[in-house]
Design brief:
Four Helix Bundle (Hemerythrin (Met), subunit A); transmembrane helix; CDP-OH_P_trans; membrane
């Protein structure tokens, strides 16, 4: 099941794992396995990727990064198939992503003996890229009757949905705000008029989808496979400049 009605769907380059995720979700539909279990699965896959990278098994690292991307899509897919959306799953997913991203880049820094300052800069760039993509995607979904588990403005604790505990939502929301609050504020201040815009063309969303976590992990996997690990951190620093380009295009289209 898509997060958007068919007429508003676009080529999402970060969502290459969706076909496999759908197969996994359908296979688990009538089992006792929950979306949270699948989220735990992608956390384990991410940890295995970090361990493989630390020991410089780069092909195995790429495998587990791609598997993480697939499972990352499968948890939401399973939630939609079972009609059991939850804020617990939504925030656990996001918090797990940012923590794993941090340790992935920290591991790259360790094995390349690069500069720690540039590693933190790359991490900030990585998160700002993903935040812009999610910002535009959530706006698109909210404007066009898509999935509404994610909100444009994550400023208040949401009311727990059926089947989840409010305490869990409260705790995970607090952690989410701590991890993502600064990035959300920066992107909103850079493009505060985006929610008022009436047009996010498919080609622009496809371009911005290169900022999605799935595509970011794919880039890391490919660079590892080709022995380009020293260039991963500089790449994500440089690619962050496209944030300004995409925001400029969005503003020009909706002026």
């Amino acid at each position: 099941m898509s997060k958007l009605p068919k007429e508003y769907q676009f080529l999402d380059l970060s969502d290459y794992g969706r076909p496999a995720a759908i197969i996994i979700a359908k296979a688990l539909q009538n089992t006792s396995i929950t979306p949270i279990h699948v989220t735990i699965g992608f956390i384990i896959s991410g940890i295995l990727a970090i361990l493989c990278m630390y020991h410089q098994y780069f092909m195995a690292t790429g495998f587990f990064l791609i598997l993480k991307s697939i499972l990352d899509a499968a948890d939401g897919e399973l939630a939609r198939i079972k009609n059991k959306p939850s804020y617990t799953g939504r925030y656990l997913d996001s918090v797990s992503d940012i923590i794993l991203n941090f340790f992935i880049l920290l591991t790259i820094w360790h094995i390349t003996e690069g500069g720690l300052f540039y590693t933190f800069l790359a991490f900030a760039g990585l998160q700002l890229q993903g935040t812009l993509y999610n910002y535009y995607y959530v706006i698109l979904r909210n404007q066009n009757n898509g999935d509404t588990t994610s909100r444009i403005f994550e400023d208040k604790v949401p009311k727990a949905l059926k089947g989840e505990k409010q305490h869990n939502v409260n705790v995970l929301f607090a952690i989410y705000k701590f991890c993502y609050g600064i990035f959300d504020k920066i992107i909103y201040r850079m493009d505060r008029t985006a929610p008022k815009g009436d047009h996010l063309p498919k080609w622009l969303m496809t371009a911005v989808s290169t900022f999605g976590l799935g595509f970011q992990l794919l880039i890391i996997s490919v660079m590892l496979a080709f022995g380009l690990i020293p260039y991963i951190i500089p790449f994500f620093i440089g690619y962050s400049l496209f944030i300004l380009l995409f925001i400029g295009i969005r503003r020009f289209i909706n002026q």
